[in-house]
Design goal:
single chain, 7 strands, 305 residues, alpha/beta, 47% helix, Sc_DH/Rdtase_CS, NADP
Length: 305
């Protein structure tokens, strides 16, 4: 698949941040793009370059029960073909898990997990019929390692990573490829949105204020007020890498069978650290794990239960 062959893309959350950068990169590469947003009039006004490049806005709230139908109908209206879907609809809410409100937990899961399932269910019949397609799921390094204060975000991204592994196994026989992006910090407006959507420090239990939970929130607030301090990745470069990942070209030319793609030096560093810890823990528990098997001389087994 080549993004220069006028493929059709659908990008959720394309009205800002990494979603917007990916949609624009796909358009500049000559593709047809359905760019979704919850408020398309505002999105079109703020980002006229999308339509100037030939993109089409699609009103879509991935938490709606009508998402699957809306997506399927939109794909049918584009000559019934869809080559790439980017599940990017995203937001972050910082708090301790203990202080998290059930409605915030539900909203996080509905956006990042169930929303991605709804969108993908809407495109899979088309991809199966054409025996090709790429599903790009936007995770995060927080989907690989949990951080204090980011529990809701990590919870939902961990779930998306598990779903991506299952989809890779289930959809591979139909010629459909699954890609999981794990970006670190990129210079987008997300940090300001996080501040606006985060519970205030006064709503967090006093016992958490001086822990890493409070520190995470304080750092985020400081960066939102002083964005020049944010040393992070370039969204346009991430979008370029996504084009290469989809096409298996450039930096990604040897990655056709790769599922997870860390993006950004910070993501790479954090993921490497956890991999080392996982390997260390694995080695430390080998004997313990093996000690739970039946002894060879003892009769019976699971079939006797």
């Amino acid at each position: 698949m080549s993004s220069t062959n006028h493929n059709t893309w659908l990008v959720t959350g394309a009205n800002s941040g990494l979603g917007l950068s990916i949609a624009l990169a796909a358009l500049r590469a000559g593709n047809r793009v359905l760019a979704t947003a919850r408020g398309v009039e505002r999105a079109a006004k703020e980002h006229p370059e999308v339509e100037k490049l030939g993109g089409q806005w699609l009103e879509l709230d991935v938490t709606s029960s009508k998402t699957e139908q809306i997506v399927a109908e939109a794909v049918s209206a584009t000559d019934g073909r869809l080559d790439v879907v980017v599940n990017n609809a995203d937001f972050m809410h910082l708090t301790s898990l203990e202080d998290a409100r059930i409605e915030d937990i539900t909203r996080m899961l509905d956006t990042h997990v169930i929303g991605a399932i709804r969108v993908t269910k809407g495109v899979l019949p088309t991809m199966r019929a054409q025996e090709s397609g790429v599903i790009v799921n936007m995770s995060s390094f927080s989907g690989f390692i949990g951080h204090a204060g980011c529990g809701l975000y990590s919870m939902s991204k961990f779930a998306l990573e598990g779903i991506s592994e299952v989809w890779a196994a289930e959809l591979g026989p139909f010629g459909i490829r699954v890609v999981l992006l794990e970006p670190g910090a990129f210079r987008t407006l997300l940090v300001k949105k996080v501040k606006a959507d985060t519970v205030t420090r006064s709503e967090i239990g006093v016992h958490y204020l001086e822990t890493d939970v409070g520190k995470t929130i304080q750092i985020t607030e400081d960066l939102a007020d002083n964005p020049e301090k944010l040393v992070a990745g370039d969204p346009s470069k991430l979008a370029e890498r996504v084009m290469e990942i989809v096409d298996v070209t450039g930096h990604a030319k040897e990655t056709r069978d790769v599922l997870r793609f860390p993006l950004g030096k910070d993501s790479l560093h954090i993921i490497e650290g956890k991999l080392r810890k996982l390997q260390s823990d694995f080695e430390a528990t080998k004997a313990l794990a093996q000690s739970t098997d039946y002894d060879a001389h003892v009769g019976g087994g699971a079939g006797d239960l």
